[in-house]
Amino acid sequence: SNNNVVNEDFAHHISEKLDPAAVAPLLCAGITTYSPLRRWKVGKGHKLAILGLGGLGHLGVKFGIAFGADVTVLSTSESKRADAEALGAHHFVVTKNPDEVETVKSTFDFILDTVAADHDINLYLPMLRTNGTYINVGMPADQWNISSFALVGGNKTVTGSGAGGLPETQEMLDFCAEHNIVSDIELINIKDIHPAFERMLRGDVRYRFVIDMAML
Prior knowledge:
Elements: H1 20-23, H2 29-39, E1 47-51, H3 55-66, E2 70-75, H4 81-87, E3 91-94, H5 98-102, E4 108-113, E5 128-136, H6 148-152, E6 157-160, H7 166-179, E7 185-188, H8 193-201, E8 208-211
Parallel strand pairs: 1-2, 1-4, 2-3, 4-5, 5-6, 7-8
Helix pairs in contact: 2-3
């Protein structure tokens, strides 16, 4: 079937300007990164760091740029530099390089943490300016141990953000149509789902797999 009947309260309008396959990840990774940037009114005059350049992070970069922020990608891997530049990021910092980390201390108004793997937040808190905000959307499994002095000394905030609701998701889709924002994807046949899953576990995808249901 090419048609499906749904309750209109749970349907979204998608602009014909956008590739439906590349829109699909926006309904998860897209709204997860759009929502906090909107809530904290990130925009022109702000310095925004995106921690991690994966499925969430690459969309965070796109939204941050579209909102007018000065965007820096923070990554453990030098291999992501070219991707960050291709996405339009203004700066790139390898967080395993102490010299590069030193250059961005007390720099950012906001850090959007998109990393799902366990990591030490205390490496990144000093990168925030006074009154800066650290936003977690990556949800690593381990608990964080945070130095109280790192927060109190600079009046800094650590917070989290879930995915937005239906109205905000439609707002995001309209914004994406206006600014030509979609996810970078690899469209795959459903028969290739197992090797795709193995690649996902290795981090070998730029940046979301989408299954072509027409191939069923």
